[in-house]
Design a protein that fits this description.
The chain folds into two domains: 62 residues; 208 residues, Rossmann fold (3-Layer(aba) Sandwich). The chain is of the alpha/beta class and 304 residues long.
Amino acid sequence: MSAPDRYQLRRDVRAAARRLAAAGVACPENDARLLAEHALGAPLLLAVGADPDFSEHYEALIARREGREPLQHIIGVMWFRGQELVSRPGVFIVRPETEVVAGTAIEAARRMVADGAAPLVVDLCAGSGAIAAALACEVPEARVVAVEIDEEAAALACENCGRLAPGRVEVIRGDATDAQVLNDLDGCVDVVVSNPPYVPAEAIEDAETARYDPDRALFGGGEDGLAVPCAVVHRAAGLLRPGGALVMEHDPRQSEELRDAALTAGFTMAETGRDLAGRDRYLRAERGARRPFSSIPGSGTRLS
């Protein structure tokens, strides 16, 4: 078998992209290129050719993706706010929309740094550690604590945070909604951020999510998926100091209920933020706002 040259490589990638598109993959050209680079061990643009076994290896990778195995599981990495994280089967794959949620928490922490504080940030339901690592990297003044109940996910969070922000994130395995977890920090936390399980029952339509993401990381409980998010809101209310901020991702259909839950839990401001697609995506709430959030597109409820 002859080794593919650069022109054959590009023809192979174009053909693979057509196969992935026919299989319903959302970003076929991107995935075909990344799988080629995984097989090559080098960027495609720099490749002048490949080893003779490339074609067989690449075909096997494309067949897996064609069968809708997640790209992140095949290549073992995922990306979040410019950082490369380890991805592993059995742990939730972080989504692009969560970057907006993390960015909102990062801005809240940065405002506190600007006021001369070294903020304490808690990530509840930390999963792979993507949000916690982003906060530690982008707000180096912050102390970050991450809580995750699942053993596999907590281990991966330790790995990702340890590599990206060594010594900067404390990962605790525990129930993020349990009042006994982090009770020594009650009333002391500046920012709580969370991407909890929130998917309503029977609401998943995407084949990859349904087959590969763990149910524990997806479903929030009850027909509306609100059981875990509401419990996180109440736990955040106990952790946050006056003036502290909660930023929590949710399903677009849960906006009003979660604003109401925040106000009932004692927050004095609750607003809904939108993702880049314009969908209601996250709750922003404050306990006695020391500095109000800037105006955002979306709906909100405020107590005077």
